[in-house]
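[step 3/7] fold_predict: job queued, chain A
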Amino acid sequence: ALDECSPIGIHKLIGWLAKPTIYIFDCDFAGSYVDSFHEAGVFFSDDGRPSHHPSSSSNSTYILASCGRHEQNPHLGPTLPSQLLTACLTAPLKTSLQFLCSGFYGPSSTCLLGLDSEDIQTKLELLLSRLGETTVSEDGPNEVRSSAEFRQLNSVFTSITNSIAWSTLSAESYETLFRKDVVLASLFRNYLLAQRLLSLVGITSVSTPKLPDCSQHPLWETWELVLESSILHVIQSEPSHIPSITRAAADEVWRLDLSGFGDLLFDEHDVKSLSVSLPV
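[step 4/7] structure written:
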């Protein structure tokens, strides 16, 4: 039973785990665990004293927490994950679609009107089956491959989250968190999405090293519009819904959207003229 569990000291836990280590706390009052790590002296500054704001380059211990020490995880009903941080870290595109279907962000979501059912969960399943992370391959029922739409959408998501981090974080933090390790970069990119979605329901996520609040970055609006555009493209590509000439037009709009987004990143990079190049 839960009340029979024996507490584990932080230092004992750290002793069990080798560094580098990423701790993820997705529970009520998650920020209190982050505070406990700091109070236990897990993080130290260069002069050997405990540091309350460790830099990303001076430590090999990272923490992602879903909410502050006085906050509880949001419970948003059966159509959205109860552990939103975990959902963002493990399935960012699916979680974004869940929020879109539930009406938490984006414009009027008119692209969803092409779906027959008014049930949110059914809408999500339909979208995932058309846009989904994997589809059955022609090579056989046991072979799966990412759909073209999913690969394109994932590429845009990676570019946008990298751009948000690049334009917000210090050069040192960006280099450490987003360029040195593929797994670490992926987790922190997805954490930026969690920061955005949690802010929409009034929750403030916590991390070590502490990242600036990126939840209101203007590129999130771009991501939400691209997400809707991709869904519209998938729906218009259905032979039973739209004539072939319209499907071809939708393909062209999707291609131009991606091209325009690439031009936007290129222009922003020229304006800033920074020595740290934006990753592709």
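[step 5/7] annotate
The radius of gyration is 21 Å.
The chain has ten helices and five strands.
exit 0
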